[in-house]
């Protein structure tokens, strides 16, 4: 829908399946038909997006689901007949362009996420006689600012960002308890230039500081040569840094609280 300087779009989707199909499994030397149970799923999702004055944008995404979590298919047995998983995921983002000219432009952006996951299995005894009742709630917010200077032969972009995430869970690694959080700030500079005809040079440097996994300084440099149309040759080198996610660090029977961040060196070339 367009209303003067405002445009609004939306979408909605629903999916449902009973999931009670039959499968054939070998048992006692013959094939047996077994009904797959507790495999139903219901999912709802929706999106709303608004843009106004060609400079501002807001998006909201919401998704929820509720499903059975069946066990392995075996003859003469129904595994995990009452295990259920439900989740709610809400994501929002806003972006605002402060100004835009032939020489420079600047914009701000911010986003957030709320994720609620709940798993139950009253028939499982691995966590106690009452069965499994586990819930995880993750929250994540971030904001960033960007400024780009443009020229016919060069460009320069400055970026600054920060954020906060936390996770509440009843089945995190025993040594971390039921709550973990992370805050971070980052800044980067990106530049490109045309030093000679048919040549493009690029470089970037970035600094990150995390409250739980330390700091990192990464950089990249590259050059491209338009040798003979349509032949282009390039070479690029850089370093990388990726902190482990909360899932990789803290989820029970999956995470490793001592996991170190990934650091990498990349060199690429081609034509």
List keywords for this structure.
about 270 residues; mainly beta; 13-stranded antiparallel sheet; two-stranded antiparallel ribbon; 1 helix; elongated
Textual characterization of the structure:
- There is one protein chain.
- This protein is mainly β and 271 residues long.
- It is 2% helix and 68% strand.
- The chain has one helix at 246-250; strands at residues 2-3, 6-17, 22-27, 30-35, 41-52, 56-68, 84-100, 104-121, 132-150, 154-169, 179-193, 199-210, 214-228, 231-242, 262-270.
Rounded to the nearest angstrom, the radius of gyration is 26 Å
Mean pLDDT: 92
Sum up the overall morphology in one term.
elongated
The total of helices stands at: 1
Briefly note the structural class of the backbone: mainly beta
- Beta-strand segment tally: 15
Main beta sheet: strand number and arrangement?
13 strands, antiparallel
Lateral arrangement of strands in the main beta sheet: 1-2-5-6-7-8-9-10-11-12-13-14-15
Proportion of residues in helical segments: under 10%
Note the gap between the termini.
Answer: 45 Å
**Low-pLDDT stretches:** none
Order of helices and strands: EEEEEEEEEEEEEEHE
Strand content: over 45%
